[in-house]
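Lab notes, practical 5.
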Amino acid sequence: MAKDSANDWNTRTKLVHAGSRRSQYGEMSEAIFLTQGFVYESAAQAEARFIESGPDEFIYARYGNPTVRMFEERMAALEGAEDAFATASGMAAVNGALFSQLKAGDHIVSAKALFGSCLYITETLLPRFGVEVDFVDGADLDQWRAAVRPGTKLVFLEAMSNPTLEVIDIAAVAEIAHAVGAIVVVDNVFATPIFQRSIALGADVVIYSATKHIDGQGRCLGGIVLGTREFIRGTFEAYLKHTGGALSPFNAWIMLKGLETLDLRCRAQAASAQRIAEALQGHPNVPRVIYPGLPDHPQAELVRRQMEAGGTMIAIEVAGGKPAAFRFLDALRIFRITNNLGDAKSLVTHPATTTHQRLSPEQRAALGISDGMVRISVGLEDAGDLVADLLAALEAV
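Output from the prediction step:
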């Protein structure tokens, strides 16, 4: 029986076809509309469009663009959201998702295990503008219950934390938050939309850095925020179109091309990550391997309930601290040292001196980020070659 709409399609079909719109030329690949503005047939039409725009009516590229709209609709279909708004970067998405709905005097609760820039927003920027922020251990539901109170505006968390790969029970946190009317905002980058659907678990707003797995080939920046149509086209759009963090049409086209292979890439990368994590366990120079697909992960039971697979990221502890970790990184031949992730190429990062270097040693220790920790982003190379490269580099430790 034929399926009538993108909502009825399975994931891979959505990733190739959802949101497609064609010009009068019937192009096969999505068109790139490299235009800042749009022409109206009359002054009356311009006036009407500024009052209320239809689904294929555009005003200005900062407000919307046909190529960008295709990316937004495809992501909304994938995530199971009513609508989406694309942004210039992942951090533009985080900033907009929080600042668009907060004001001085509001109270929020955030997991403390966050990416460095997310911590800067929650620890520094929001309090500067009068927002009260309480931090909790994201895996401890009792801490969420104690911190969330009547009047709490929203809760914010990374579904899987960067770089310690802590997995948070979204359904349980959503139940706690919704009981007092708080909005649940989830950064789902590490879990990916392939392995976890946060809206189905209770999230109200979901954020992605499209720079990561969605592009997946290290080409450009982008982000996206997903949620109800009321939130996206009301609260969020009003904030973004006036503050200027919109995604460019060319980058939106890159993201559309990335989506076509997202499911295939993520599943292949996760399978390799599982094999690598298992190969590194028990190595004398690696006292700890953190991977959500391993049975000894602190939230292993939750991972089985909440995710389809363990994802593409691994964190390891290299014995000997920073000097040993640096020797290990420098000895790698296939893995590349960079602070990006979710790429077709396998990448490694030393969080204590890069992504989280702004934090004090005490703050890093509280988050579980040691001087010997290395974050590994598994790419599309042969898994056997990757294992061999890691094991050979560990000999340098």
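Observations recorded by the TA: The chain has a mean pLDDT of 95. The domain at 6-260 is CATH 3.40.640.10 (Aspartate Aminotransferase; domain 2).
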